[in-house]
């Protein structure tokens, strides 16, 4: 994940830090954090959660989070059709941007598999409130029957 380190160095203006050095101790501040979040989103499609980053503000922790998200993320592209089933890819049309047609824009939805069981009899998709996170779902996993695969939506973005 050399690219993450390059972004980190560029924003902090230094290469003099270790993987366990804290972002704020080596010159980072809240505005730099917003820039980091934007660059990480652009480069990796990863949504850096501020509350989580404040608990583990190191380069190593950020790389671990990105790798973990890549490992468990299952991207579904929603297709513009009516009466679609969960077995198909689906597209959701977006309103035209700057005169472009909706055919040129797709809404990409990333799902995170919270629990996957090959013997499951069904799937449960959980959708958090706007600007919410998936972390509260971990607290209720034990109360949901093992016969269900659990997925949650995160990182909805436009693909041109």
UniProtKB/TrEMBL annotation:
Residues 1-70 form the Carrier domain. Keywords: Phosphopantetheine, Phosphoprotein. This is Carrier domain-containing protein. It comes from Gongylonema pulchrum. The lineage of its organism: Eukaryota, Metazoa, Ecdysozoa, Nematoda, Chromadorea.
